[in-house]
Amino acid sequence: MEDFIPNFIALAYLAAIILFILGLKRLSSPATARSGNQLASLGMLLGVIVTLLDREIIAFEYILAGIVVGSLLGAAAAKKVEMTKMPELVAVFNGFGGIASALVALGAWFRVTDTALPGADLFIMGLSVLIGAVTFTGSLVAFGKLNGFIKGNAILFPLQNALNQILLLVAIVGIGWLILQPLEVAPILLISGISLLLGVLFVIRIGGADMPVVISLLNSLSGIAASFAGFVIDNNLLIVSGALVGAAGLILTDIMCKSMNRKLTSVLFARFGGSGAAGAAG
Amino acid sequence: MESLIFNLFIFVLACFVGFEVISKVPTTLHTPLMSGANAISGITLIGALAIAGSSSGTAATIIGFFAIVFATINVVGGFMVTDRMLEMFKKKKGDEA
Question: Disulfide: which of A129, A188, A245, B51 matches B41 by Cβ 3.0-4.6 Å?
Fold first, then answer.
């Protein structure tokens, strides 16, 4: 009995993963797409329910409150949105997924009490915050551009590309600092702040017409963020599902580019004529 | 760390599955597929549950709470809006026929 619950959870996670894979596959064909979405949502429900059986989860009041608030807001947004505004809504949801992954890694940082934590674990923790935060602000800017809150044109200024690369470098230095001094607040704050800024700078320079491709790319990134959050808390379901979305999202981004007769690199970097600028693409 | 290497194995293998699972997608399904995949990436909710539900201090619990709210919006809203898109898609097909 002592072993039953952990094994049961692991097997249920495996079932959830199978449902996600079948769901994604079915979503890519018109006849089966709706059932694919339903299978995937069933997988999610299964994952959440069995996670609550975990013995390490002992406080339920915040969980319940969070799920109720999130469900109400999510359902209201999904029901009320106009058909033409759906890509914007997907961008916002995607941003929320990204920030959630960053917060999971941040929450895990608060558990660190031991300076002897392996460097690789701290590296992934920092990376998880970085990618999640970039996804968050990047998606919000994409939303703003589609919605007209932010000027749709590419917003450009001199040395923009160099600035982005320097900021990315600073964020990576921040991760190195986190590894050296895991108990200090400054490194994790630096990583978070720079990453939030990077997400904005990364997307403002891309024109509004290319936003669907950018949202697809950010969707892929939010999958990677979830996967890395899974590394941080050592959870297979997160690692596998996040990687699935990350890879499938990348393929979809490529397919979307091709259907628009664009190259991904030219969407992201054309205006700079540079080919060596792949850094910020993650 | 052994578990890190093991996790890296399943990460790489899952990436290959993700690459293979999607090949040809008709243009009309681009947005619904993106939206559905996005809802799946809300799986980070599981991580948020672990952060908020374990006793690791007030700060972690509060951060976990916000992570749950954001991830749940992503999951619930994401699957619902995908369903709405696909419902619309079906109707459109019916009108054309």
Answer: A245
Cβ neighbors of A256 (< 8 A, separation 6 or more) are A212, A213, A216, B30
**Sign of torsion over alpha carbons A31, A36, A37, A42:** positive
| Residue labelled with tokens 């997907």 | A90
Say if residue A275's pLDDT is above 50: no
How far A114 CA lies from chain B's nearest CA (Å)? 14
Phi, psi dihedrals of residue A69, rounded to the nearest 5°: -60, -50
Chain B residue numbers touching A74 (CB-CB < 8 A): 72-78, 80
Tell me the ipTM for this assembly.
Answer: 0.91
Nearest CA among A175, A115, A121 for reference residue B1: A121
**Alpha carbons A240 and A253: distance in angstroms, whole number:** 20
Q: Taking Cα atoms as reference points, which of A154, A211, A224, A103 lies closest to residue B49?
A: A103
The answer to which of A53-62, A88-97, A186-195, B13-22 has the lowest mean pLDDT is A53-62
The verdict on pTM exceeding 0.80 is yes
Type of residue found at A172: I
User: Residues 6 or more apart from A199 whose CB is under 8 A from it?
Assistant: A133, A134, A135, A136, A137, A138, A139, A140, A141
Please, what is the average pLDDT of chain A? Answer: 89
Tokens of A267: 């969407």
pLDDT band of residue B91 (cuts 50, 70, 90) is low
pLDDT at A270 over 70: no
What ranges do the domains of chain B cover?
32-86
Q: Which of A103, A137, A224, A239 to mutate to test the interface with B (most CBs of B within 10 A)?
A: A103
**What is the distance between the alpha carbons of residues B38 and B55, in angstroms, rounded to a whole number?**
30
DSSP A238-274: HHHHHHHHHHHHHHHHHHHHHHTT--HHHHHHGGGT-
